[in-house]
Amino acid sequence: MSKIGGDLKQRLLNAFRGESSDRMRVLSTDFMRLEKGCAKEDLALVVESSYRELHSLKGAARAVGLISVEDFCQTFESFFSVLKKQGLTPSSKTCALMLGWLDILEDLLRAEDDSADASASPQMLLAISRMKELAESPAQIEGDGPSVYVSDTVPKSEFSPEESVVAGKENMTPPKPVSPAASNDEIELHQEQGLEPRKNDNAHVSAGMDDTVRVSSSSLTGLLLQTEELISSRNSQKNRARELSELDHSFRNFLKLFHSNSEGRVSGLSEEDVKQQAQMTEALEGFSKKIEALNLSARKAEWDLTSKVDALLNDFKDSMLLPFSSLLEVFPRMVRNLSMEQGKECRLETSGENVRIDRRILEMLHDPLMHMIRNSIDHGIESKEERLRRSKSPVGIINFSITKTDRDVVKIVYSDNGRGIDQERLKAVAVSRGLISAEEAEKMDRRAALELIYISGMSTSEIITDISGRGLGMAIVRDKIESFGGSIILASPEGKGIRIVMNIPVALTSFRGIVVESGSRLAVVPKSGIRKVMLVRQNDIITAGGKETVFVFGRPIPLVALADILELEQGETKADAIAVLVVGKGSKAVAISVDDLHGEQEVMAKGMGPLLKRVRNVSGFSMLGSGELAPILHTPDMVRSALTIHTRGRVRSVIHKQEGQVIKNVLVAEDSITSRMLLKNVLEAAGYHVVTAMNGLDALQKIEESIPDVLVSDVEMPHMDGFTLTSKVRQMDSCSSLPIILVTSLGSPEDRERGVEAGADAYIIKSDFDQGNLLEVIARLAG
Description:
Helix content is 47%, strand content 19%. It is of the alpha/beta class. The strands form seven sheets. The chain has a six-stranded mixed sheet. It has a five-stranded mixed sheet with strand order 4-6-7-9-8. A hairpin with a 6-residue loop joins strand 8 and strand 9. The longest helix is centred in the middle third of the chain and has 50 residues, at 271-320.
């Protein structure tokens, strides 16, 4: 790898030091857990954690040109690959070896030596040799045979003082202190000074000072978090001001009622009573004025606090924002070097790199974006010769497009023009690993097949290289994106590359959210994860096979109650319409019904502590203005939970009040497009919900997924004819009473008998087709 020099070298190393320090802490913790011994169920998690950390550290080392660190991590990662695949439990002596290797890795990181000599140190060569030996003989990993330590194999005299960390502890020297100017954990704050500095005897001291101070970013982050705590106070003040306004309004109405009642009773009262009445009226009016004054004061205090908190918060947030270019600038060279190593021609193109986002999110995005680039170059983009054979440009293009779609949301679109994801290969790998059956793979559509790429260890590459092929990339990408409240959608038209759309929040902690009520509980749904908020009439909810759907964006999507997702008690409502949140996209779109909407507000996210690091459907908590603690819902988890509930049919009906007859679901199986459209239009005009199938096999698959109320089928169709379809449906226990109507051009008595023998309830000849007759038959059979 070519050398990196100048200011870019320093900036990259600054970023790498912080990242490597974090990853080494995780590895050290994992290795200590392995040495102490952990339960079998925890072993896989610890090994997976170390596996991923080494994988990411290797890629980061490559980006800064530290070949020795990259080579060491590559072999170390391969060693963990054996542990992971074979489920091995390293013995105590193997763990001791691993900790020794970790010491060597720490030395390599501290040295930051990018010369070829760094990869030739005796310690490193011996450790790599031992890793390979154990990887090739897995039985030794769990065995208690003699361990080989560096100090037992290589004489101390063969080491230079810098190489004596494991062989001779007495030669260890503390790491060199990092100068404040070089630290990645610092941010320059520019201070606008409007006054001329006073000249005094200490002028020589201030002569070297400029209008900037260096503040640790961790300190700045702490100040930002403390400022964001004021959001709860601001929301609480808004709530108090609203309550006072309602009290003022109610008391004014009461005073009007009191005056109207008093006027009609004055003539019948004694002088003493009239006097008391006047005193009471005066007291009530005085009380009303005090409430009005208090209301005005509360509203002024609320406005004052809101303006100051918002201004302070915006200034702090602005100081934490960095342009995307600060992250993307490390990738062009990475693309160039990786493509050269692969013998390919690749170019990185970017747009929108000036969009600014929280620096903490940028740091967390580094790994996901790096993994995507590595996957594209290694087995996404074809070689120059293959691209020319496919009539493509010889240069592969990797593109980043960044746009700010909302005040709180940034959309990142990553794409390449390579071969795309091999869907069949992906399904074959899933079948070979026992994740799905061959039958499930056969039925799986392209979108469902692409979801397999997110499973850890899934890869379409036939060979593991030092760049990719281990199946970790996309699993890491989705985990990381969703960890800070983002979402990811992947598309890959065959032979046309890949497109990944990521929607991520601008800031890490505070965000706009919609407060919803379900099962008498309040919760917050991040606005960035909601596509649409709408009211759905009860009559517009379609029930088929015990499952409920609604039409959104011109197509049916599953409808699931939030109470079902969160497993809460759901009360019955008599409302004519229900509030629905539409979340997810494409085949993952879901409509989630809630009992009530309580408006939109800015909320401060709070973690759940170390004991609750990962709770399904919940990402954190927030304090509402009322003082109530409400969970912040995790949108991607909610989508997965809703689809699982809907698929299994474990739904407590969202429909609480349905006027008129429930809409019947009719499945039409017809290979002719014209006939299929005719039947669909006739039935939909009559008020039925129609699902179509192109042939008998397609119809059978749809029946297995969701049982219709009526089946209308042609007879002569490819793959499976109507007689066979009818016979197979009748063999299903759940469809023994399903009404089946055959509509065909075969009108001979023999064909009619075949239809009756197969189990059809009605047989209509196309030449005698009358839509009134068909509708009458369906109405009679469907009940």
